[in-house]
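Lab notebook page, bench 4
Experiment: in silico fold of construct C2
Operator: M.H.
Input chain length: 470 residues
Purpose: comparison with the prior construct
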Amino acid sequence: MDQLDEFDEAQEPADDGGQVPPAFLWEPCPDSDAEAWAARPEVVPPHIEDELTFAARSELGSLRAVEVLAVIEQRRAVMRRWETDQVLLAAHLAATYETMPGVRAADNTDRDRPNRVALAGEGAPSVHEHAPLELAVALAMSPDAGIVLMSHGLELRYRLPRLWERLKAGEVEAWRARQVAGQTLKLDLAVATRVDELLATTKRAINKATALDLITEALLALDPDEAARLEAEKTDGRGMFVLPPVPGDSPAFTEVHARLDSPDAEALEATVEKLAGILARQLAAEGRDPEPWQHHRATALGILADPWAAAELLETAGVTPSRVTNGTARVYVHVEADDLEEWATTGTDHGARAERFGAMTLGLVEQWLRRRDIKLTPVINMAATAAVDGHDPPERMREQVILRDAHCQGPHCTRPARSCDIDHVEPYVPPDEGGPPGQTTPANLQVLCRRHHRMKTHAEERYRALVRAG
């Protein structure tokens, strides 16, 4: 089922949630309707919020549901503040450790052993070798953990200053900032600086996956040859691996892992989905109990081991093998026109971006295009504001919303937009029921995963979408 074509707010969730902070903020609804707002669930009085934060554990069981949520939010804020402070204080300790009483200067003792250590990349100062060890003691963590924490703090402070300021301001959680710092430690200063600049403008989640993707983008901009070398190096991992049985596991099943070219993986998944759908329908037609969808996918993949059995299954469903993957296995690649022109004229490779797969060289894109039928999509005007009266947006408007939002707009949900529903921010009212014209417009559309779509629809009195952040 293509969820992008589904607009029924009452549908059951199709699958699990996904992977980037929301572009919409959510909050309890205001009193636009005084009577409805007066009947809203009781909220926590502001004067007891501090008391709830420090409520004893013996008192937690007596809290009302709304108070439970308030305590969770407040204590999470305290924990987040402490995690951030650890990073800030680790970097500060590194800079001031030698001023402590009883600490000997790091460069005046054993000449055969360096007493200052470089914990972060180029541009960050070295630190006294004992500083991270004392940090670890103070935090009751292992020495190695103390070294890693201090290295992340120094990396952020001296090589990722924009992300450091966002961390200090509370805009980025410490664990997210540390995931980025862990990936930039070995980069040249120019590349790390470029990554920091890209992080300041990205709408994606600040985490390890984003960092790796942006590192590739930075390399493509600053050192295309190195980016191409690293990309080629990773192709050595291709293969299919039948894993040995895990002790204690059932001998009835075996795990199979594969690392394929991305277009091949997309085509394989499309075929498996098609076969799984046929198997599910056959099961229903026989009146048998339904099975989990992943069970059907596993069976379908096994059937592909026998091409004749796969062809027979397709024929029983009235599907010819040539129609299985045509038009369904898609890889969305976004390329800037200027970059494409420079690639064609000078061979300079500034790269492209493929949805789900991240940044890549134009050389890799060219390899894909040489061996596959392609579909070129016209440039979409992301600033378009055209509106239509019908409920479902036209294809170009839907694509515009998908590209703009990138992921589910529910709080902290990162499910990719192409796996989400298209939702009206302000609920759609049919014109024959008094609805105004032009309700379907990019400004009034967002992508929501099925779970958050249902939550917005059926808990409408508690949540609404606010103005678009940024």
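Observations: The chain has a mean pLDDT of 79. DSSP finds 18 helices and eleven strands in the chain.
Next step: discuss at group meeting.
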